[in-house]
Amino acid sequence: MFKKGTKFQKKVWKYLLKIPKGKVKTYKQVAIGINSPKSARAVANACGNNPYAPKVPCHRVIRSDGTLGGFSAPGGTNMKKKLLKKEGFCFKS
Fold it and tell me: Can you say whether the dihedral through the CA atoms of 66, 45, 57, 35 is positive or negative?
């Protein structure tokens, strides 16, 4: 399925495909979801190195404090916010 990436990155990206449109998970939740609960930073790095965005929806992963975190695809965090809004995600005010 994925031609690029390490074994860990591919595991993260495969998991991201399970996050439904309009929903988000934290980096920690993804780490737990791939049975690597102490790897939230590594999950963030895998998201940041995702060459398949937005088809592999790393934009659906946010920080534990509810902020967006980064987005390495063109447009940066503004694009991440637009993609989430388009999918119907409601931001806290």
Answer: negative
Domain ranges, ordered by start, for the chain: 7-86
Intervals of the chain under pLDDT 50: none
CATH architecture of 7-86: Orthogonal Bundle (1.10)
**pTM here?**
0.93
Does the annotation mark 90 as catalytic? no
d(C-alpha 40, C-alpha 74), whole Å: 23
pLDDT digits (tens, 9 = 90+) for 1-27: 889 999 999 999 999 999 999 999 999
Catalytic residue among 34, 58, 62, 83: 58
